[in-house]
Known about the structure:
Layout: E1 22-26, H1 30-42, E2 50-52, H2 62-65, E3 83-87, H3 91-103, E4 110-113, H4 123-141
Parallel strand pairs: 1-2, 3-4
Antiparallel strand pairs: 1-3
Amino acid sequence: MKHQGTMRKVGQSSKRMFGPRKLLVxxxxxxxxxxxxxxxxxxxxxxxxxxxxxxxxxxRPLKEILESDDRHxxxxxxxxxxxxxxxxxxxxxxxxxxxxYRKFKLPIQHWATLTxxxxxxxxxxxxxxxxxxxxxxxxxxx
Length: 142
């Protein structure tokens, strides 16, 4: 299933973007789950519910997984590609989190925001789309 993603540059607005205010985290081992939670605290985003996608979530639609309780999947293994999907964040919060992530030199990963289109996608489809977009960007830079 191939989706047509539309990457767009994110501004600096304080207006909330699409979706429930949550963070969907894919492909993090347990030790790095704790590191991310600590980073959220440092960014003053610790009130944001965090859902750790598990291997059994890979075929579920994003919208359905985002209905899970805070800390769903914490401590469980995940063999997925590494990604963070932000839902209901402001653009400023998105920039704050990504800058802090880079500052602390955490492993490279994909970043995405939930959209009305992507919320119906299975996790695996979104991760494949993010991988394809990353490859396209890499080719453009050459």
